[in-house]
Design a protein that fits this description.
Blueprint: E1 2-7, E2 13-20, E3 45-47, E4 52-55, E5 58-61, H1 71-75, E6 81-83, E7 95-96, E8 100-106, E9 109-115, E10 125-128, E11 132-139, E12 144-151, E13 156-165, E14 169-176, E15 190-191, E16 197-198, H2 201-213, E17 218-219
Parallel strand pairs: 7-12
Antiparallel strand pairs: 1-2, 3-6, 4-5, 8-9, 9-14, 10-11, 10-17, 11-12, 13-14, 15-16
């Protein structure tokens, strides 16, 4: 362990000292540098200050706009900016805020819109698995966060789903894994006559099919 000054995700140095374990990875987007210890030859941070965008099959960073259809090629794109490493992200006590959420479906797609102004796309994230969606949007101006996790009505194809972080909203396009109409966006648990909570039969079928597929969730915030 070593004691050294740290920097935040904007590359600004802080005055605090903290213990950083050797091998800790830089938290900036696109940087693959590991911490080697104080006074060691830690290289400058090549990172992407923008956000990942997935749109119409193309994948790219908003800061450099180098588009590719290959996901692995997208992950290997070298950062377009240089600055200080961020070994530890700052954590602050945050309040919770509410955002308006709308959704609709068109053919094989379910489109979710979360209306939010002044959120920070660099630290906000959307996490998706075949049957679950988690969203966290951070608002630095009032130190608050919008957080929502839902069990989806149907199964989705994670690899072809996408998210766009726009100035006034977050738009999430979920590709249905099955060509069926969704009666609602998320499942609701109901209470049986004996007082125990049970899920609907359809929800049980969804979970069983998902366990057979063994598909892991994808966290876009870690790209």
């Amino acid at each position: 362990m070593a004691s050294t000054a740290i920097s935040n995700t904007n590359g600004e140095k802080t005055n605090s000292l903290t213990d950083i374990a050797i091998g800790t990875m830089c938290k900036n987007n696109g940087c693959k540098q590991a911490y080697e210890g104080a006074g060691k030859g830690n290289l400058s941070c090549n990172h992407h200050p923008g956000i990942p965008i997935f749109h119409e099959g193309m994948k790219y960073w908003s800061c450099c706009n180098k588009k590719t259809s290959d996901f692995n090629a997208f992950l290997e794109q070298v950062g377009c900016s240089q600055g200080d490493h961020c070994w530890i992200k700052e954590t602050k006590t945050q309040g919770h805020t509410n955002c308006r959420l709308d959704w609709h479906q068109t053919g094989p797609w379910v489109v979710i819109s979360i209306f939010a102004k002044k959120y920070d796309p660099n630290i906000s994230f959307v996490k998706l698995s075949p049957v679950k969606l988690s969203v966290e949007l951070y608002f630095p101006s009032d130190n608050s966060v919008f957080s929502k996790t839902m069990e989806l009505y149907g199964i989705v194809d994670v690899s072809t789903s996408c998210v766009s972080m726009l100035p006034t909203k977050v738009e999430i396009k979920l590709k249905k894994a099955e060509p069926v109409s969704w009666g609602m966006l998320e499942y609701r648990n109901y209470k049986s006559l004996n007082g125990t909570n049970q899920s609907t039969k359809s929800e049980t079928n969804v979970k069983n099919e998902t366990s057979n597929n063994s598909v892991e969730s994808v966290d876009l915030g870690d790209l």
